[in-house]
Amino acid sequence: MARYRIIDGVAQLAGREGGVGQAAAKCRVAIAAARFNADIVDQMVAGAVAAWERQGGSEDSLTLVRAPGAFELPLLARKLAATGRYDAVVALGCVIRGDTPHFDFVAAEAARGIAEAARDTGVPVIFGVLTTENIEQALERADPERMDKGGEAVDAALEMAQLLRQIAAP
User: Could you tell me the strand order of the sheet in which 29-34 lies?
Assistant: First the structure.
């Protein structure tokens, strides 16, 4: 028998301890989504919303806010997290490598800024920014019927929100 307490945020996600509908029922989540590469990001948003609904989230507990691009996501995510209205923030975007170093700067700063937003606010801010070599990779990862990275990001947000609640509980 284990001699330690197990804290596991995934226990309330679909298929575990009550199944579908448990994870999002008490959560408020904001999605910060980039407009740049909208054809890809919109698929990620669709996957994220589907995951939210699958987990029992209500319409009035999910907020979608658009940013111009992935570079602007960290500031938006930080501001959303700092409001205290959300249990988690999901940052969705897509940066595709091109012929210039622009990709490297945008991808690195988006990752750094999103991590800092979570660390500085204490609110889970999930990095759902695709950083791919080409559009084919991006489409595969964004498609809710294939890799569903938007849905995975919402699942991670819910898991982290549950985990933090469990840690805070007496």
Answer: 62-67, 29-34, 88-96, 125-132
For residue 27, give the nearest of 64, 66, 65, 55 by alpha carbon.
Answer: 55
102 included as an active-site residue: yes
- % of the chain surpassing 70 pLDDT: 90
Instruction: Please say whether the dihedral angle defined by the alpha carbons of residues 49, 53, 58 and 61, taken in this order, is positive or negative.
Output: negative
| Domain range list for the chain | 17-26+58-90+102-124
Rg (CA), the chain: 16
C-alpha span between 45 and 25 (Å, rounded): 19
pTM: 0.90
C-alpha to C-alpha distance for 7 and 9, rounded to whole angstroms: 7
Of 102, 112, 119, 146, the active-site residue reads 102
